[in-house]
Amino acid sequence: MSAPIVRFAPSPTGLLHIGNARTALINWLVAKRGGGTFVLRLDDTDVARSRAEFAEAIADDLAWLGIRPDRTLRQSERLHLYDAAVEKLVAQGRLYPCYETPDELERRRKRQLARGLPPVYDRAALKLGAEERARLEAQGRRPHWRFLLDHRTVAWRDLVRGECHVDCASLSDPVLRREDGTYLYTLPSVVDDLDLGITQVIRGEDHVTNTAVQIQLFEALGGTAPAFGHHNLLTTASGEGLSKRLGHLSLKGLRETGLEPLAVAALAVLVGSAEAVRPVLSLDELASLLDLAHISRAPAKFDEAELVALNARLLHMLPLSAVRDRLAALGVEGGDAFWLAVRGNLERLTDAVEWWRVVEGPIDPVIENHAFTAQAADLLPPEPWNATTWKEWTEAVKSVTGAKGRDLFMPLRFALTARDHGPELAALLPLIGGAKACARLRGERA
Q: CATH for 361-441?
């Protein structure tokens, strides 16, 4: 089997959201696992809404997820290919001019619905003669161009959904080119897929109906359609559909809250599939878990609370080598001993800053019983300290004071960290060190 050539084709009209990331990641993982090619195609033929800043944001978001396109292209630079395809379709009689205004089409649809007929285009423009077309154009009307569908059932074996079919007699002939000469999505997409040799088109299930039209268009242009796969869509936790325009769960927003890209990737890909959602340590590992045939048909809810919990589980597994540079950028040092001490208490990597501040100081200790903590300070053993120091010291404090359980441990934790919870003090105490520990136990800022 040849190596896959796949594409991710966002429009640079807004920020990518987690649903877009699902599509991008699935395509990337298919390419990665099969030693194939991943193409980033910016569908920017909508000149009015496309923005350079959104194109840059798309590249940044994909890079953050770990996706490095093998090739990047813009549809706005490929218009000559689409113009050539138009000429070919017109010559075949498969693309025809229509002159109805949007208001006229809407009134026609309402009349059809009132008569119990499906609201599809009635192909009235095919009945226009050359003289009538000339008269309409003399009135200032410019045609939009529709693709003449064969009224037959188009079937394909979907990589996700299995056997699928669409009766094209139930569809309107789609508009491929607007009155102003600009292109809608369908024609450029098919032309590019043919030109690039795309082998698999993997996208959201909202494109299922488009597939029948596109298969006919592939055939009309003399090409072979790629394999199609339509995955289920993600919703918000409340079941609301995701929108770039409304900024739902944007990757930029998730990134700015300090979440790990591997946690975002794992939840985006595994939710709504037969695989249990779990942390992964690499995209290679995630690729091994992806099976298109095991993706559910039902929409999947992307829950931010689940993402935060998954992010924590991932951090608890990561070795220092995976985060060393980012910790350094946050001003956190301490090496392996510090990381192993605190990682089990992190939800986000930035939480490590708080625990580094506890280790390095100064902090203002919280003293509940000055006499008790001063006595505990007197019992601190001489350094060097190690992982057994905490147990030896607290046993000595317990023996002298009679305190035990919460009455023993909580005053010491408050004094040493100014917090009522956190990493195991057996690991933190050697990092804090004797001078700071003694000062804090005596109520001094250190």
A: 1.10.10.350
- State the binding site: 244
Please state, in angstroms and rounded to a whole number, the distance separating the CA atoms of residues 338 and 336: 5
Cα torsion 19, 20, 25, 30: sign: positive
pLDDT of 32 higher than 70: yes
Closest CA to 260 of 65, 119, 43: 65
Residue range 5-72+186-232 forms a domain whose CATH class is alpha beta
pTM of the model as a whole = 0.91
Strand partners of residue 425: none
CATH H-level superfamily of 82-177: Glutamyl-tRNA Synthetase; Domain 3 (3.90.800.10)
The binding site for ATP comprises 244
> In this predicted model, what pLDDT tens digit does every residue of 196-249 receive, in sequence order?
999 999 999 999 989 999 999 999 999 999 999 999 999 988 888 877 665 668
- Do the Cβ atoms of 281 and 217 come closer than 8 Å? no
Cα gap 112→108, rounded to integer Å: 6
Q: How far apart are CA 29 and CA 232, in angstroms?
A: 17
> Nearest 5°: CA angle at 335, between 333 and 341?
100
Joined together, the tokens standing for residue 205 give: 């299930």
pLDDT, tens digit, for every residue of 236-266?
A: 888 888 776 656 689 999 999 999 999 999 9
DSSP output for 28-91? HHHHHHTT-EEEEEE----TTT--HHHHHHHHHHHHHHT---SEEEEGGG-HHHHHHHHHHHHH
User: Contact at 8 Å (CB) between 212 and 154?
Assistant: yes
